[in-house]
Amino acid sequence: MSPVQKHLIIHGAVQGVGYRWSMAQAAEALGVHGWVRNRRDGTVEALAVGDAAAVEALVRWAQRGPPEARVDRVEVLAPRDQAGAPEGFEQRATV
């Protein structure tokens, strides 16, 4: 079975609350590869790659986030770049 890829844009009070670190921990626990980063517009962006059930579980986690976050909505998009994800799950620099 080939892996599923989802590109996420998370809106709300999601910066400065440990969202990236918490998402990386959740992704690693689920066996999902990819990355997460803050964007200058106040959103958080992520790429999740892995087994369909694991990726969907991470999307559900993204809709809640860590306790300090307030998630208003999560856009789930097809990835713009179909290149493979890094090994593990990375926290990337702000773009």
Automatic annotation (TrEMBL):
Pfam families given in the database record: Acylphosphatase (PF00708)
Key word Hydrolase present: yes
Active site: R20, N38
EC annotation from Swiss-Prot or TrEMBL: 3.6.1.7
Catalyzed reactions per annotation: an acyl phosphate + H2O = a carboxylate + phosphate + H(+)
Domain of life: Bacteria
Top-level EC class as recorded in UniProt: hydrolase
Keywords assigned: Hydrolase
InterPro entries: Acylphosphatase, Acylphosphatase-like_dom, Acylphosphatase-like_dom_sf, Acylphosphatase_CS
SUPFAM superfamilies recorded: Acylphosphatase/BLUF domain-like
Domain Acylphosphatase-like: from-to ranges: 5-93
Similarity comment: Belongs to the acylphosphatase family.
Protein known as: acylphosphatase
Biological source species: Variovorax ginsengisoli
